[in-house]
Amino acid sequence: MARSKIWKYYDKIDLQTAQCLLCEKIIKTCGNTSNLMKHMKTHPTIDVNDHQSIVVRGMLKRETNPSRNRGRRILKYASVKVKSESNADTSNDMDVNLIEFVDPEAHAAVESVVNEETYANWATADTESAAETVSAADIIEFEPKVAQDHSDQMHMQDDALPDLHEFNNCQTVHNTTYQDNLAYFVCRDKHPLKIIQGEGFKRLTQVLCPSFQLPSVEQLGARITQKAQLHTAKVRQQFANLKTLSLSCAINTTSCVSGSSEEVSYLEVAAHFHEDVHRRSRTLSVQTLPPQYNASSIVERLERIFQRFDINKSRIVCIVTKSSRLLENAVATLLGSQRHVPCFANLLETLLESVMERQAFSALCDKVRDHVAYQLSTSSSSSLYTQLQLDVSGRAISSFEMLERYVRHAPHLNKSQQSALDAPPALNASELELALELLGVLRPLVSAVRQLCGSSTEFYPCGSNALPIAYTILNDLQQPENVNQQQHQISYEMRLFVIKQLEERFEGMEKNVLLALSSLLDPRFRNMPFQSASLVAKYMTHLYNLYEEKSEATAAVTEDEATTDGYDIWAAYRAFSHEKHKHITMTGDENQDEISSYFCTNISSLQAEPLQLWKDLSQFHPFLHSLSKKYLHIPAAAIPPARLFTAAGAEVLAQHSKILSDHNMSNMLFMSDCTQEEWQL
């Protein structure tokens, strides 16, 4: 293949670089001539398509210290003049470009580059007057090099500066990266888009990255929308590979602007499913509701969500909702009433609120609240008061924690107390004793709430936990030794009230088939957390019916899983141990089925994930293992319980209220669940 015509203006140094003969700049070639052509545009007087021109280097001389300019050739000449002259004596009547060398040493260098005949022609032309033979348009002047050190410095600067086109591309990439990280910041921390218009935020970005051009609110919103559309496509593909999933649905009401009396309601929908042995939850949609909404409007919105994510209704196991007749009717219209599951966290919330509203407990909380608030606002108060805290309005568990801390530190506070005459009174000895007993009654309930909340405001507890937690609270409150500890009639009545409320709620939970099956199929609980033996027998019959209907299909699935995943040493071990276990535990009944053997085995560790436990049990109970995948992703709450009970959850709802007026709210909250890897940051 012919060499490119651009090479006559360059000297090739190595496979990756070349030096311009006109300005001595080092250019990266990257195996092609694109950068060489771009650089030649910086010399507008050069016509690349002029085939009659000849370019010759003035002189080639290396640096005396090779380590200083290694890999770079330095030209030493004062100036070069390219003359265009017609030579009548040449046989081909061809115009050539003549180079006039100011430095006499240039002639010796030329002899090593061109032949003697050509050099003789140049030498003849060189003796002529420039004024007679060269026009101004034909002369290209190059600035002389003052000193070799100055030349070295210019080369270093040229090497450090990228090509202008590459620099612009780099700036574009960096701006896109900055915008994506800015969008991640807004979505992840649930800030309104207008935060980027603040003077302080602008100043911060200017200091951190002066070259970054802050986008407008509209541009940032468009970027978030684009990201949401891309991630929606990925979620649709993910859901297409799921056999089953469950949904949670809640209607939250908050003020649109902090301090405003106007309230706005919004619908929040999340999906729950399994990835391998882990349970996943992610927000699908958060959208405001009109002032007047009904079950039909809820159904329409849910239908649009199903369509957006390609969710087949037959794959939805259930929808968990807060206690709302409106939502229950909407679920019944969409899927049928049998696929509705009540929110267990909401049941505990209403129970705690009813307890806090009882006159004896609320009076104690009011008295402690006034006293602690006064002492914390007084600088002369004892340092012990700094260990106390006030409760958060609308968070029942925070009132319990406020009273609990006060009772714990009360003996030390009374010793150091020197209250002013106008200070609110503290609890006396009798009230402290009563508060201690009431806290003992509520402690199992509060412990259950903390367990449900987990360690994050985005955590959804597993639905299989609901029945065991309720059963444990009820059993603990009914223990005789705990009942005999009550000395006050008020605490005794409080215990009876909590037991009655729990029994009413627990009965309805036991009758919910989906909640019951999730507990039965959880190896940590099985058939233990049930009060009604008749209901357990009913559910066992239901399992046997399913076993008879789907045993053949389950065997086929198990065989496929065994043959497609390749050989696994631990899978082989489980198969071997399964056969050995059957011989050891055989007690006369050789036809014992996998359902009865599952419920006769001891319960598993409470610290492990249910599906992780099933990974070891699947060899013994393949049918129940396949069935557990359908029910163990059901959540115990319609929204993360921390939002219902904790102060951190109240802050999350306050953040939601700040972005309700933003038309990008749904996309922002949808992307808030995405990890940095999903954002491709």
Overview of this protein structure:
With 681 residues, the chain is of the alpha+beta class. Helices cover 52% and strands 10% of the residues. It is built from 27 helices and 12 strands. The protein has helices at 34-40, 105-111, 116-126, 130-133, 148-160, 164-188, 199-208, 217-240, 295-308, 325-334, 344-356, 359-377, 396-416, 429-453, 466-477, 480-484, 489-511, 513-520, 533-564, 569-585, 594-600, 610-617, 622-631, 642-645, 647-658, 665-672, 676-679, and strands spanning 10-12, 17-20, 26-28, 60-61, 74-75, 80-85, 96-101, 245-255, 263-275, 278-288, 316-321, 340-342. The strands form 4 sheets. The chain has a 5-stranded mixed sheet with strand order 10-9-8-11-12, sandwiched between helices. Strands 1-2-3 form a 3-stranded antiparallel sheet. A two-stranded antiparallel sheet has the order 4-5. Helix 22 (610-617) runs antiparallel to helix 23 (622-631). The longest helix is centred in the last third of the chain and has 32 residues, at 533-564.
Topology:
Blueprint: E1 10-12, E2 17-20, E3 26-28, H1 34-40, E4 60-61, E5 74-75, E6 80-85, E7 96-101, H2 105-111, H3 116-126, H4 130-133, H5 148-160, H6 164-188, H7 199-208, H8 217-240, E8 245-255, E9 263-275, E10 278-288, H9 295-308, E11 316-321, H10 325-334, E12 340-342, H11 344-356, H12 359-377, H13 396-416, H14 429-453, H15 466-477, H16 480-484, H17 489-511, H18 513-520, H19 533-564, H20 569-585, H21 594-600, H22 610-617, H23 622-631, H24 642-645, H25 647-658, H26 665-672, H27 676-679
Parallel strand pairs: 8-11, 11-12
Antiparallel strand pairs: 1-2, 2-3, 4-5, 6-7, 8-9, 9-10
Helix pairs in contact: 6-8, 6-26, 8-26, 9-10, 11-14, 11-17, 12-13, 13-14, 14-15, 14-17, 15-17, 19-23, 22-23
